[in-house]
Amino acid sequence: xxxxxxxxxxxxxxxxxxxxxxxxxxxxxxxxxxxxxxxxxxxxxxxxxxxxxxxxxxxxxxxxxxxxxxxxxxxxxxxxxxxxxxxxxxxxxxxxxxxxxxxxxxxxxxxxxxxxxxxxxxxxxxxxxxxxxxxxxxxxxxxxxxxxxxxxxxxxxxxxxxxxxxxxxxxxxxxxxxxxxxxxxxxxxxxxxxxxxxxxxxxxxxxxxxxxxxxxxxxxxxxxxxxxxxxxxxxxxxxxxxxxxxxxxxxxxxxxxxxxxxxxxxxxxxxxxxxxxxxxxxxxxxxxxxxxxxxxxxxxxxxxxxxxxxxxxxxxxxxxxxxxxxxx
Amino acid sequence: xxxxxxxxxxxxxxxxxxxxxxxxxxxxxxxxxxxxxxxxxxxxxxxxxxxxxxxxxxxxxxxxxxxxxxxxxxxxxxxxxxxxxxxxxxxxxxxxxxxxxxxxxxxxxxxxxxxxxxxxxxxxxxxxxxxxxxxxxxxxxxxxxxxxxxxxxxxxxxxxxxxxxxxxxxxxxxxxxxxxxxxxxxxxxxxxxxxxxxxxxxxxxxxxxxxxxxxxxxxxxxxxxxxxxxxxxxxxxxxxxxxxxxxxxxxxxx
Lengths: 328, 254
Prior knowledge:
The complex is a heterodimer of chains A (328) and B (254). Chain A is α/β, with parallel strands linked by helices and 328 residues long.
C-alpha cells in the first residue's frame, strides 16, 4: 500500500492518541512543583506528602530544595526558583512591607508553641537576670522576635542584653562552648540545646505577648505560592493542597507513623521526632477557610505592627491583601 | 601629535560618567522596569543613608568594620613583613616554611569562621582573627616576592664594598623591596575588607557586613546597596591615604 501524506498524518495522529490513552493518568497530568524546604517542622507536611506518595497520587511531582533560612527561601520564590514554600511569617511580612506582590499565602500548616524558646545556663531563672548577658539568636527569625519581646516585656532596655546574631545550626556549639549565656532556637536546635547539661528552658512561644491575646506565635508558618505559578496551574495548586492536608492529617492522627520517615529529614531520634510532631497542632483543610479569614489574620496584622515597633520592618503591610483562599 | 587632556577635563569626564550612570539607574527604576526589591533607585539608597545618619547608626557601622579591618590588617602585616623579609633572603627558611604557606594561602577567610569561633568565642578578637587569617598568607607572599626581586647585582656590589649582613639588609634590600611591599599591602588592605564581611556574618551586632546581611534578611535592598557602596567608598578612601603615605615614605621613588 502506498502511503499518501494524508494517510501518514492520520496514522501518526491515531497512534499518538492510542499511546496517550494508554498512559497512566498520573504520568499524563504530573505537574512539577519546586518546593522550598528545610528540617523545620513547618515543612513536615510537604515532606511527608512526598515520601508517602500523596503528591504522586495527586499528579504532582515535587522537587524538594533545601534552604537554611526563610529569607533565602523567599528570595528563591521572588526569583522564580521555587513555586511553593513554607516560610516563617517574618520573612513574608518583610516582603509584604516592601510591596512584593509575587506571592500569596494559601494555607496555615500548624500552630506550634513548645518547640521554640529561650534557653539559659548558669542558673538564670528570670528574663531580668539576663541583664549584661550574651543571648545568641538567628536574626530576623521568629526566635529573634520572641527574644526581643521577652526582653521588652521584662522591662529591660535593648542595650542591657547583648543579643548576637548566630546562625541556627551554630547555636548548640556556641551554647556548649559557653560563648553565649542564652540561646533562642527552634527545633531541631531547640531539642539539642535543651538536652545540654545545666541548660533550662526559660520561656517558649506561649509566653509571647501575641500568643496570649491572639494565639499567634512569634513566627507562625505560612504556606505560600508564587502567584505566576498559581495563575498558570490553579488545579495543580488545589491538588497539591489536598495531598498536603492528607499529610497534616497523618501528623495529627498517626504521629507514630509520621515520625519514622521524618527522622530522615531531621536526623532527630525517634523519641525527639515524635515529641516534635506532637508539639504542634496540625490544621486540617476544613479549618483553613476560617483561619485565613478570621482572627488569626488579625493576629498576623498585629505581629506586623510589633515588628515595626521593634524596628525590624519600616511599615506594617495590610496582611489580608496577600491571603488567597481560592485554593482551599 | 594631539594635546594631552588637562587634569580638570579628565575630572569632569569622570564626574559626568558618575552622574549619567546614576541618572540612568534612577530612570530605569522610576520607569518600573526593575522592581525596587531587586534593585532600589539611588534616591532610595540616599534617603536610607540620610535616615541612618539621623539615627546615628551609619557611622557606627562604618567605624566598627574599619576598626576590625585595621586591627586585623596591621596585625597581619606586623608579622608578615619581617617574616617575609627573612623568608625572602634565606633559602633554608623558605624551604622550611613554603609547605605551610602553600597550605595556608588558598584558604578563604570564610573557612576560618568555625575554628575562630572555637578559639576566640563570640568576641571582637574572633573578628580580628578572621581578617588576620584571610590577609596574612597573601601579605607574606607579597613580601617574599618583593624581597626576592631586589637586584642581586646591588646586593653583591654592597657586599664587595664591605657591607655586613645587617648593612645589606638596611641599605639595599629594605629600600629596594619597600615599594613593592607597599603596593602589595594596598592590595591586601582591599582584601581585608572582603574578610571583614565574612567576619561579620556570624555573631555581629554592627559593621557593614552585618548591615548587608541584616538588610538581606528583611529584603531591605537599599540597605544592602548602601552597605556595598560604603565598602567601596571606604576602600577608596583608605587607598588614597595609602598613596599619600607611599609618596611620603618612598621619597626616592619619586
